């Protein structure tokens, strides 16, 4: 069964489930229930503007994957723990901290702040323990803690004080100490004031309530008071928002975002991570022009890139990119050059989200192989940036630079290797496309001419023409072998990406895409099995049968480009003759050399 769905209506949470599509415009009128693959909750489902619905759509085939469920229009409540359950290590750590208060006779309240409290209430373990102190700095408390340890003849496992460094987004001093093999952060409670043109606040000591209200989201504003052993919800809505699955700011959203525009991306990331719904006021503020300008001007590209990387590496990348597109932040975040050629379409964010979702679903498919975290991350980037794979711009020297390279190196300040790997995936995916059908059918039909392999095919013809023992599948093995040696262990990612490229129907201008995921999955598994049968799984690790020194000796060369030409010929022979030996390869080389000399 194939479903037609408006772009931006699908989001992904950790456990897939089938839910009724909220749009009836594309549904089959002859069915009583038309289902779309979605996830375990409707929380976080973005509202799609009519303009986006009209400009781009895509389909997901869900054959052999259907199950019926009732319609859900209201997010189901989140189940929270009634009490925070401490692990044995956490109990020992907290006992040590409270013992310090007693030993030093301190009238001090110690609270665990933020994410640890949220995660523990959700029943998730967390090792991110930040201690907020009400009447002294973190370094001052560390001195007291050392004094307590010294009284017991115990040594400090490790400690450090990270000085305030606003230029590196470090707005206050943080003390750190290793307790029971776990690093704990210590900071004082504080309040913040922001200037108009900076996200760097002026810090001062504050109350617990002031500290709670200065935080980015209500679900991150909760405290666990070590002295009383209780959870404190000082905004009086953190627990309720956690239960109802809402992403809300403690103070008015627009003011919160103008103070620190990075909070827009954090709100999106947490909404995607937990599958929570972004508050309507929050969405309106995030998409307003004033906040968008502030995000572009006040936040460093490195900080933006860090947030995007956390989104893509998390468990809700599709939701996150959907929100970026819906809230008109996609172009701003990825800072596409104004001189890009061809110029990206107005709906490029929606197209990117469509490719990303298709890749995400394929990666989530059981039995599709084990992808490392790095392969998964770069596979999602490769899919998301597919619409820009052929787009370039002119740099200051008039040189054409791929836009994908610009996005990684300048828009997100990521490492150069990320850009190089993604661009290599795109290039290999294009080259993979004509090989997919022959690999499925296990024959060489349709491989007479390939732009990227003209020289390789010439070498193969010279080998197969003079050797009747060359296997029938040698051409496809040679071409695939060269391809895999270039992309190495990212070849599976490149294969998936090439299958996504086959999803384009015909009208790229309005972005019609047809993702038949079950068919793609079957094709992937068949091609993967063929590559395994051909013995190419780790072909990039296979050493040449003849090394450079031997080439120079047999061919009587002193160096130069002819060595490279011989290396390519010998690798072609080696791929065409998987059982060939080094001596056989050398004999073939001597024979070719002798024929060339007779001809000359």
UniProtKB/TrEMBL annotation:
Q: Which Gene3D superfamilies match?
A: Beta Polymerase, domain 2 (3.30.460.10), cca-adding enzyme, domain 2 (1.10.3090.10)
Q: Which domain of life is it from?
A: Eukaryota
Alphabetically sorted, this entry's keywords are:
RNA-binding, Transferase
Q: Where is the Poly A polymerase head domain?
A: 110-247
Please state which protein family the record places this protein in.
Belongs to the tRNA nucleotidyltransferase/poly(A) polymerase family.
Q: Which PANTHER family match?
A: CCA TRNA NUCLEOTIDYLTRANSFERASE, MITOCHONDRIAL, TRNA-NUCLEOTIDYLTRANSFERASE
Annotated protein name in UniProt: CCA tRNA nucleotidyltransferase 2
Q: Which gene produces this protein?
A: LOC104776391
């Amino acid at each position: 069964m194939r479903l037609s769905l408006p772009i931006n209506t699908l989001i992904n949470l950790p456990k897939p489930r089938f839910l009724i599509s909220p749009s009836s415009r594309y549904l089959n009128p002859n069915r009583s229930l038309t289902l779309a693959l979605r996830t375990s909750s409707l929380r976080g489902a973005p509202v799609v503007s009519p303009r986006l619905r009209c400009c781009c759509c895509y389909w997901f085939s869900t054959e052999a994957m259907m199950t019926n469920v009732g319609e859900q229009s209201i997010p189901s409540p989140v189940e929270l723990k009634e009490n925070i359950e401490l692990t044995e290590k956490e109990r020992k750590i907290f006992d040590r901290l409270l013992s310090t208060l007693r030993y030093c006779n301190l009238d001090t309240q110690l609270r665990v702040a933020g994410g640890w409290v949220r995660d523990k209430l959700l029943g998730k373990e967390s090792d991110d323990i930040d201690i907020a102190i009400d009447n002294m700095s973190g370094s001052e408390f560390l001195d007291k803690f050392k004094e307590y340890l010294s009284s017991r003849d115990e040594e400090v496992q490790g400690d450090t004080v990270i000085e305030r460094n606003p230029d590196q987004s470090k707005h206050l001093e943080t003390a750190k100490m290793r307790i029971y093999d776990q690093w704990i952060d210590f900071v004082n409670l504080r309040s913040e004031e922001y200037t108009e043109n900076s996200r760097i606040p002026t810090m001062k000591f504050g109350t617990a309530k002031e500290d709670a209200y200065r935080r980015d989201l209500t679900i991150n504003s909760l405290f666990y008071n070590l002295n009383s052993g209780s959870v404190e919800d000082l905004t009086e809505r953190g627990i309720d928002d956690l239960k109802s699955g809402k992403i809300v700011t403690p103070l008015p959203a627009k003011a919160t975002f103008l103070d620190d525009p990075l909070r827009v991306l954090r709100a999106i990331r947490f909404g995607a991570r937990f599958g929570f719904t972004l508050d309507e006021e929050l969405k309106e503020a995030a998409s307003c022009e004033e906040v968008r300008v502030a995000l572009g001007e006040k936040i460093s590209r490195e900080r933006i890139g860090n947030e995007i990387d956390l989104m893509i590496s998390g468990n809700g990348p599709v939701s996150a990119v959907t929100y970026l597109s819906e809230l008109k932040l996609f172009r701003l975040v990825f800072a596409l050059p104004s001189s890009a050629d061809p110029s990206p379409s107005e709906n490029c964010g929606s197209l990117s989200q469509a490719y990303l979702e298709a890749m995400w679903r394929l990666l989530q498919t059981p039995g599709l192989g084990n992808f490392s975290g790095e392969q998964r991350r770069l596979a999602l980037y490769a899919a998301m940036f597919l619409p820009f794979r052929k787009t370039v711009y002119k740099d200051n020297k008039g040189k054409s630079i791929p836009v994908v390279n610009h996005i990684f190196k300048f828009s997100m300040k990521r490492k150069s290797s990320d850009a190089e790997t993604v661009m290599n995936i795109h290039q290999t995916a294009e080259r993979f496309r004509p090989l997919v059908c022959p690999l499925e059918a296990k024959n060489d039909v349709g491989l007479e001419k390939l732009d990227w392999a003209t020289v390789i095919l010439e070498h193969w013809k010279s080998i197969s023409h003079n050797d009747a023992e060359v296997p029938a599948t040698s051409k496809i093995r040679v071409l695939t072998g060269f391809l895999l040696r270039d992309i190495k262990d990212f070849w599976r990612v490149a294969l998936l990406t090439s299958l996504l490229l086959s999803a384009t129907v015909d009208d790229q201008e309005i972005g019609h895409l047809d993702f038949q995921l079950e068919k793609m999955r079957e094709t992937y598994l068949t091609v993967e099995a063929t590559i395994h049968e051909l013995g190419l799984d780790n072909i990039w690790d296979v050493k040449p049968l003849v090394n450079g020194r031997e080439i120079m000796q047999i061919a009587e060369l002193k160096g130069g480009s002819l060595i490279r030409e011989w290396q390519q010929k010998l690798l072609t022979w080696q791929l065409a003759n998987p059982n060939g030996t080094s001596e056989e390869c050398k004999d073939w080389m001597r024979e070719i050399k002798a024929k060339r000399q007779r001809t000359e």
